[in-house]
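Figure 2 data, in text form.
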Amino acid sequence: MAEEEKNEETENEAAPVDEAPADEAPVDEASADEAPVDEGSDPASEEAAEPAADQGSDPSSAQAAEPADDSEPLDMHPKAVRKRRRAQAPAEAHPERTPEDRAADRVERRRQAAASRRRYRQGRGAKRGEPGTGTPPAEREPASQKVRQGIVTSSKGDKTIIVKVEHVGRHRRYEKVVRRSRTLHAHDESNQANEGDVVRVIETRPLSKTKHWRLVEILERAR
């Protein structure tokens, strides 16, 4: 009896394992039924796709939708337009070079530029004919020396007199007659001038720290 009970228990435990594939079979059938459904065959999606295709087939609508990259604003400056076009132009691909190659190219460009300048200068010399003498040196003219007339105020120094020079003129702004005076130290080689004499002096090289005038003549003697 014990063996029969054990056999029944084992059969009861094994029974659900055998029934599991049967329960899973309907799930497979449902998934198999859903698999053939195609999203592209949906009429709503087909209707939505048709207007898009119609819009793409119209060239005018396509041009209106896409902005024109080549068009520049009317108020843009011509220099800005040229700069923009240069920036948008595709750059030429140059092979990678070493620093030595770039230095050699630079030397070659300089050599060609020097040769071009030499040919240009030689051509200009041939057109002119004989080489020019250049600009002649300017003739040096002696600077005009200042001449002043005044009254001797002091003749106490040896070979030196002090001359008071007065200037009378109208003021530029106030139009009032203004009288200005200054004193000059002049060289008198023979001590001819005396106080009160009207003399004429001329500008000369510096003879001392304060004396760079020289007596020319005595116009009027003091009374």
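Caption note: Helices lie at 2-34, 43-57, 59-65, 78-88, 99-128.
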